Amino acid sequence: MKTLYPHGFASSGATGTAEFLRKMLPEAEVISPDIPVDPVEALPYLKQLCEQEQPDLIIGTSMGAMYAQQMYGYKKILVNPAFNMSTMSKVLKTGEHKFLNGRKDGQKTFKITKDIIQHHNQMERQQFKGITDFDRDNTYGLFGIHDTTVNTYDLFKKYYKNAQRFDGEHHLNEKALRQAVVPLVRSILKIEN
After folding, report:
1. Phi and psi (nearest 5°) for 159?
2. Which distant-in-sequence residues (6+ apart) come within 8 Å of 18 by Cβ?
3. How far is Cα 16 from Cα 32, in angstroms, rounded to an integer?
4. Least crowded by CB within 10 Å, which of 50, 51, 116, 181?
């Protein structure tokens, strides 16, 4: 079983969430790449990676969930999706930022420019075009009831039917993964405990 994990903003493929998923789903190969900062590069990169790897499931968190939503034709779980990064995010601001985790290229910081914010805005306005019946049936949203960073439950429900709330915040911890994400993964992929 192959799972693709697109990480959230300012993170990397070395995020603890990917490590927890590997530990909790030992039967799964968890592919967790470093996503480019600019969506003009990130979205094509992830689409190509999906074509190449053909994951059985995509699990995205926050910004990674926003990208995962656009990987049409795949089963996916969107955890606290940040669909409106350019307009509602408190984190997508111009300036230099530090990566939260080590990246394969060794970069420690990154810059957000007005152009990058504009690229997010342009992509966000198109992000729900292309949804198929397969996607409506096989896209699952998980929304932390204590998430104070984003609230896109209603927007998700406008396009998809499989939404549930879990006892957690915006950033996932081991408890939220164990109680909400992993059981849903096992249910979707029909994996025995």
Report:
1. -115, -25
2. 5, 7, 30, 32
3. 11
4. 51
